[in-house]
Amino acid sequence: MIKKLLLGLRFRLAVHKANRQARRYGRKYLVINVGGRLVTLSKQELTLLIRRGYFHRGITAANIEAHALHVALPRPSSR
Question: Model-level pTM?
Answer without folding.
Answer: 0.85
